[in-house]
Amino acid sequence: MTKTLAVAAFFTAEPVGASLSFWLGKLGFLYKVEFAPFNQVLQQLLDPSGLFSRNRDGVNVILARYGDLKGVLPEFTRGLEAASAHQGAPHFIFLCPDSPEASAGPKHKEIALGIESTIARTILQLPGFYLVTSEELARFYPVSDYYNSYTEELGELPYTDAFLAALGTMICRKIHALKSLPRKVIALDCDQVLWKGVCGEDGPGGVELDPARLEFQRFMLEQRQAGMLLALCSRNNEADVWQVFERRPEMALKRAQLSASRLNWRPKSENLKSLAQELGLGLESFIFMDDSPVECAEVRDRCPEVLCLQWPLDSERVRKALRHVWAFDRLAVSREAAGRARFYEQNLERERLKSQALSLEEFLENLAMKVDMFAPGPEHLPRLAELSLRTNQFSFTTIRRSEAELKDLLKPGKLECFAVRVSDRFGDYGLVGAALFRAEAGRLDLDSLMLSCRALGRGIEHRMLARLGEIARGRNAGRVLVRLLRSSKNQPAWEFLGSLEALSKAESEGGISLEFDPGYLEKLRYEPGGAATPYPMTATGSEEFQPGTAGAVLSQDAALWQELSDAESVLKAMRVIPAASAAGTERSIQEKLLKIWEEVLGVSPIRPDDDFFKLGGDSLTALRLSARIEQAIGKRLPLSYLLKISTVSKMAETFDDASS
Q1: Is residue 244 within 8 Å of residue 213, measured between CB atoms?
Q2: Cα dihedral sign, 465-469-474-477
Q3: For 140-195, what is each residue's pLDDT tens digit?
């Protein structure tokens, strides 16, 4: 189903649509791009029937320069708050650079930082609102020649094609981070990746920790702080690897920060499967990084679910790669995600306790587990969205919802929700589950129920249904309706519901509906070894959901993040011009103009007598065409005159007449 990417800007922004369409096609995202009328940002934020408000399931993008907001910042922030109240789609606010002259002003930096700070504080309490500053854009996609005073003066189009390509790339990169779920584990090779050299041959003192490798290690630690687990997967003698960690104090990455390791001479694919089993995660949760093309090929062949990245040996390319692997992007990090590494460390203690217990009952009793069910507040929405998007094995419907969608659904009169937080003697599991429901017409309808795999099989799911029974009885509801939509991985949820005594069952395409007596649910308790015994998790079980093909091309094709890592490369890829048209020495004005027309219009080949407007040209395209001609040929045509010239041959005659 095609969704909408809605764009509103304080300046003429339609030309960014070319790079947006380019990247949306690369990513496999089904979005149509729509632009609000010129300089209608505030109106779009406030209008309950405008483009933004109608766009319930898509993405809204706001483009503003610092100078645009300087005089309307209070109105803008109030507009953001109003939009959060009545608009359901995620919003991205992109702060674009002012002109070089304005940016050089004595107080510009101070004003810009104040604007950024005000917006950041405002959206801190607005789920689904994200800020991208011009500094962040320049850090990832720097464009030195970003401003075009000519097109700014003629048509309020302040930016060059290169900057528009960078902007469109960054917009789509943020959408990719929003829609493509993050991996959970980074498995690292050691030699040539964590250090330069071979530890088994050079020894711990002989390997080189150059600045690029240390920067790489610090980047990995940042990923750990964002919730990723770090593991080693290397063909090495174990003692040789650990000696490097022990004898090289300058190592940024420490052994204690690794959640698991496989250091042996077995195939990397075999070791990755073993790591997945130890961590209780699926292979689709893994990123594997190795410098060897042979090792990467072996993993790609035998573990296709793993995102395998062949890491460059050159130090400068390592630095560049760290900025341009989109799989590492995060929009936000929940408290639970940030503590994931600590949870897995605690889980090792739980497993030791389990191995010492004489029975599952004794193990659960010794855990001293505490379960808190509560009505979530706005601060819990990021984690609820994370659960909705990631939970796979124990999700009754696998309905995926963003923060903004959940905020809209949990408004009074729509759905209700209770969240579940769990802790035990070893630590806090965090917010691990939620149930969304509505009570109406003497019945309680369960919209969705999800429970993280970290808490599965310990009776928490039984307590959640018991709570639903208690709520139903309190609302005088005579039935609890539970729907389950079958997915490829929610077999545990299916088996759990199948173990319960339903009043009725009605199968439908792709799922089943069950009605339960609230009194029965209210008394539901977990009995290890009983009828509702733990159901087997799939061998490669993971709570993480991987969304079809969306983003798969980008994620698996390393060439994309290597080759399309700057604005000029993106611009060149967008301008697909046959070699016959682009190659060779340009001996005439007409040949130069044909190439420029093909680049700007994105059409090839163009013949000298093809009509500009029939090729898809309009006034905005003519504006860009005029600027491109001036840049390439050094001659300027008035825009009004340019619109009257409909073919390359006529335009070439104009230049020939002017030079004769």
Answers
A1: no
A2: positive
A3: 999 999 998 888 887 888 999 899 999 999 999 999 988 877 788 999 999 999 99
Contacts of 379 by beta carbon, 8 Å cutoff, 6+ apart: none
Q: Do the beta carbons of residue 470 and residue 522 sit within 8 Å?
A: yes
Q: For residue range 342-354, list pLDDT tens digits in order.
A: 666 666 666 666 6
436: Cα separation from own chain's centroid: 24
**Three-state secondary structure string covering 21-65:** HHHHHHHCCCEEEEECCCCCHHHHHHCCCCHHHHCCCCEEEEEEE
- Eight-state DSSP code of residue 538: P
pTM of the model: 0.68
CA torsion sign, 195 to 198 to 199 to 204?
Answer: negative
Report the alpha-carbon distance of residue 454 to residue 281 in Å, rounded.
Answer: 10
**What is the reported pLDDT for 638?**
66
CA quadruple 437, 440, 444, 445: dihedral positive or negative?
negative
H-type alpha helices, 126-237: 134-140, 149-155, 161-179, 199-202, 211-225
Q: Which helix (H) or strand (E) holds 446?
A: strand 443-451
Q: Could you tell me how far CA 307 lies from the centroid of its own chain?
A: 15
613: helix, coil or strand? coil
Q: Using one digit for the tens of pLDDT, what is the confidence trace for 529-563? A: 544 444 433 333 333 333 333 334 444 444 456 67
Top-confidence residue, 207 or 542: 207
CA distance 306 to 299: 8
